[in-house]
Structure prediction request, 248 residues.
Amino acid sequence: MKKYLWVVVILIVGISSIFYLLSRSLENKNNSVFKESWEEKCIGMVEQQIEKRGVKDPLVLKAMREVPRHEFVPENLQNQAYDDTPLPIGYGQTISQPYIVALMTENLQIVPGCKVLEVGTGSGYQAAILARMGCQVYTIEIIKDLAEKAEEKLKELSYDNVIVKQGDGYLGWEEEAPFDRIIVTCAVDHLPPPLLSQLKEGGKMVIPVGPPWSIQSLWVVEKTRDGITTRDLGAVRFVPLTREFQGE
Ligand code: SAH
Prediction:
């Protein structure tokens, strides 16, 4: 009788170990399939939405392939992270459409090591792209919660060359000026004088200019010895730059 009991115990332990090992290996397999599929989606996004529309800068394309965009969108929207669209990130704000991020970044003509100011941190995705390209990034967000969240996310993903500040980006970042490049990711109806004065001579700024809650023009502004030159990249629609936080 005792002998049978032992056999039963050994059988139960054996079978449960097999089930445990099987379930662990399945779990690992699922994880790697999951991970691979984010990477595949990201590569597809760059190929279909960005390269096909004419963005060529290899540094931009590489960064867009390497930064995990799904990490910067709300969890319930992660499966749309690589779609051809902007997405809500809370507080009525959005993470820009991937193509617009690529277009703006390409027109900044980034040189690794350059000092960039971003106005409108939002999710932190654009800042991560610039950091991946080797810039020293200073980014300002007016909504405290978004600034904190973005800072946390950038730290978690080890983008150490980004400094996030909560504040009004219209005023720029006087203590860190001048900047080689400035990117504004919220719409203004005029070029903010503090940003122009904090841009180096020979520096470039990409900024959506036009009426709020409407269609704006995406401008590339170059600061020359004699003033500025502007070039229009086409119509865009950005959330407006606000001077103080109104909302939840
Ligand atoms: N670059 C972001 C998208 C930004 S959406 C990304 O990659 O996700 C525009 C952001 O600009 C919003 O988060 C909004 O809160 C912020 N914003 C609006 N007015 C601002 C201001 N005066 N200073 C700084 N940020 C501002």
Residues 2-51 form the longest helix (50 residues). Residues 56-236 form a domain with the Rossmann fold fold (CATH 3.40.50.150).
